[in-house]
Amino acid sequence: MKKILFLIGGLLLSSIAINAQTISYFDGAILFSDEENNGTARFNAMSGAFGALGGDLSAADINPAGLAVFNHTEAAITLGLRNTDISTSFYGTSTANSDSYLNMTQAGAVLVFNNPISLNWTKFALGINYSVAKNFENDYIVNGNSGLSNFIIGPSNTSNLSLDPFLNYDNDNTNDIFYDNVDGQFFGNYTDGQNERTTISFAAQYNEKLHIGLGIVTHRLEYYQKGLFEHSGNDNNGNLLDASFQQELKTYGQGAGLNIGIIAKPTQELRLGLSFQTPIWYNLTEEFTEDLEIKVSNNSSIYHEPENSKVNVFEYDIVTPAKATASVAYIFGKEGLISLDYTLKNYTKTKLKPTSEFVESNKSFSKDLQNTSEIRLGTEWRVGKIVSLRGGYFYKQSPFTAAINTDHVTGFSLGTGFKFGNTKLDLAYQRSSHTGVYGFVKELDAAELDMNTGKITATLVIGL
Predict the structure, then answer these.
(1) Residue 71, domain member (yes or no)
(2) What CATH number is attached to the domain comprising 219?
(3) Is residue 289 part of a domain?
(4) Which helix (H) or strand (E) holds 292?
(5) Which residues are 340's β-sheet partners?
């Protein structure tokens, strides 16, 4: 029986298990802190620039005071179709990936009470809104050849797999076989799940000049990731070796926070908004497994490490950064409007707990992350009494201090709406792009990612 020693560029596979395919706690905290522009089709068509406008169920996710802008009770439901194109590049080899996903992205209702209890407090509203804060569904593969490899097969009296390059093989090299020619390397990243947000909001209108609101925000998070690294090589004498290393990670749990906001109406045309969302406190559980398998052409045995893969379970907490949004909108009578939101988010305040378990990660949040700016610009214009045309632009800064310009998310949106009495049908299209990297083996160059996402949403709104 032979024993196999497996190295990649001097890195032991035991190290790959720690550093490689599935995301680290550091990257996971950033991923779970991020949120997308997912809402009603009207909200999406205007790139989510609703902080000073209100009057839309998804606007309450930014500023709960916007519920008091509603004049009537209504309900809405939204379906979304997302297409993501991810182009990967690894040591000069490019691979194109494309996938589409269909799901319900929003559902909610608002109850409006127009009977004032005093001359000053003229309106109250209570709303609940469900939305997908972040969709984790993405699949992509990476192909290439780094040329870095060193596989050795030597005689041994055991069938166990050794990961130590200095032990347990024939030191005189008489019968060793060196698999130092790389035929190809492959990495697959498969993710699923979503971060679902439910907001229960209460808002009131004071003297028809000021709206105030409070929202209770809850999150339900499920994240699944499978990372697969495959390596094929030969010894230049007809002996072939195939190795695969797989990790699976499942993370799930709940989170909660608060959202408060105001909208002021200084003039008939001008709207000013300000809102603050507290950190979201997540309690999460992860389940993690890994498996290494090696096959060689001159040996019928299949080597596994570990021989009996077990599920490792760990519970921890994430405190996401708080965020503040300032908004302004101008209303052109019944013809149209333009709206602008600016959101500031301090990623250096991200925390993993218990702090004693995450000392280095928490230091990295302060050292490697930064304050981020997000800009959302939207406009809407009415064409007759039935049709509305909408458009928008959005920009979201990367939280990493080392980010380059293309790592920031930029995009645009378009949409239209149709009103038939108490029923409305809204349609929207969003397009965004950004770049990134994914390092799946520490000693190899990270794969470069170019990501482009298109989303189509349709919302049915029914006035009650």
Answers:
(1) yes
(2) 2.40.160.60
(3) no
(4) strand 281-296
(5) 328, 377
CA distance 58 to 43: 7
Q: Which amino acid is at 458?
A: A
Token reading at 208: 């028809």
Total domains, the chain: 1
DSSP labels, 377-439? EEEEEEETTTEEEEEEEEEE--SBTT--GGGSEEEEEEEEEEEETTEEEEEEEEEEEEEEEE-
The confidence score (pLDDT) of residue 184 equals 84
**CA-CA distance, 179 to 34, in Å (whole number)?**
43
Residues 235-276: tens digit of each pLDDT: 777 778 888 888 899 999 999 999 999 999 999 999 999 999
| Torsion, CA 199, CA 68, CA 327, CA 262, rounded to 10 | -90
Residue 34 lies in a domain: no
Contacts of 284 by beta carbon, 8 Å cutoff, 6+ apart: 32, 221, 251, 252, 253, 315, 316, 317, 318
Kind plus residue range of the DSSP H or E element containing 167: none
Confidence (pTM): 0.89
